[in-house]
Amino acid sequence: MPPRTRGVTLRTRGGFSMRLDPRGAVVGLLLIAVALAMSVVLIGTGDFPITPDDVVRTLFGGGTMAQDFIVNELRLPRVLVGLLVGAALGLAGALFQSISRNPLGSPDVVGFGQGAAAGALTVIVLFNGGPTAVAAGAVVGGVLTGLAVYALAWRQGVHGYRLVLVGIGASAMLSAVNGYLLTKADLPDATRAVVWLTGSLNGRDWTQVWPLACVCAVLVPVVFGHARGLRMLEMGDDSAYALGVRVERTRLVLMGSAVLLTASATAAAGPVAFVALVAPQLARRLTRSAGPNLLPAAWMGAGLLISADWAAQRAFGADQLPVGVVTGMLGGGYLLWLLVTERKAGRI
Fold first, then answer.
1. 230 with 254: CB under 8 angstroms?
2. pLDDT averaged over the chain?
3. Residue 152 gets which letter from DSSP?
4. Domains and CATH numbers, the chain
């Protein structure tokens, strides 16, 4: 269905006005509720199951000593990493799809996730680095890939389809580099690298929570500070110029923020597939609102990743899968459906 543009305009006596879409607000609140509810369920899931009531009671300071240790020290950091990674990927996907004006404009497709993976693999295979060094390598690899794709896609500006095509080429090349690094690795390093490349929340603790939380605390205000310019960019560069938007500066700031969000999320949990592609589009279909739908996309990403992690633990019996396997299976099917839909519509 085409996105709706109707909404309610709120005005104050000081002249400040804000346009509120009631359906978008309701959907956003529901997505928050789903993400938080699934977080409580996930915290209670494991070899030592805990009821949702006990989980909530323990989070607010109640519960036994054993419950306090399991909930606050073992499981809460994993869930917080999942929420932050999902929200960061959902927000980054919404930014890329709005900037490129293309539903395939996602970090998964345009190579930024592969770039972060290449940086991490380089540290693992060539330098045998620890977790902190691997995370730093992922961030550096993602940023360098973003700069390279932007430079190669530049031609008197960055056109959406050119950005996607250059990114697809970069992704293919980086996949080959990653495969080569795996063939050169010793067996222990190769095993470690393959586990990291799958994307997983296993073993995540507070050392992954705080860096990612700090990155989000810095970048999210930057993104929302340029939200109006992003909305204008969706109408085309000429229209945005006419409305007073500094097009290239806005695009560069938002792309840089999206690259850093993707690289930081990849550093924390590995390259979790397809969340950045699927979350913004599902959010837009639910809200039926014009514009990038940044907040719904972020909460949709958080809810998707937490739900996928719960499914990875519960839906396959005794075999617990990494969350990246579940998101890859679901996202791959969604991508095939999206390609068929776009082809029938004559857009590809």
1. yes
2. 83
3. H
4. 8-13+28-344 (1.10.3470.10)
